[in-house]
Design goal:
With 147 residues, this protein is α+β, with helices and mostly antiparallel strands. Helix content is 22%, strand content 44%. It has 3 helices and 6 strands. A 6-stranded antiparallel beta sheet has the order 1-2-4-5-6-3, with helices on one face. Strand 4 (102-112) and strand 5 (116-127) form a beta hairpin.
Amino acid sequence: MPDALSPRNPDWQAVVQDSFARQAVMATFQVSMVLMEPGHCILEMPFHARWTQQGGSLQAGIPAVLADSAGGFACLSLMPPASDVLAVEFKINFLAPALGQVIRAEAVVVKSGRTLSINQVDVYAIDGDTVRHAARVQQTAIRVDSR
């Protein structure tokens, strides 16, 4: 029986890169894919004041978008050919304001099933040498046929 956290698609890297390139929201928020390994994804974006709420930290939806995508790519890396993934459940706990020069989302797949996958994403606000844990996310993603 294959390892549940091993890629089931030999072309997983190309599939993930293509999916990342097609997500217009990644370009809008100037997101970079810093690391992509089977079941593990790190995305980073620069902090911009135009995306803040009244207190000066990022509006809650912005780190949620970053976390959602990091989790989705981590899950997608383990899916069989002709697959895509969509979030079906998402819980976020905000731990500190997202203030810093860079916002990072690090996703790790906890369980990759045939249909549902579970991942955990940690969001960090990085300001020079200071790293603040801004949020923790648990996400469930469903495998769907790619279009």
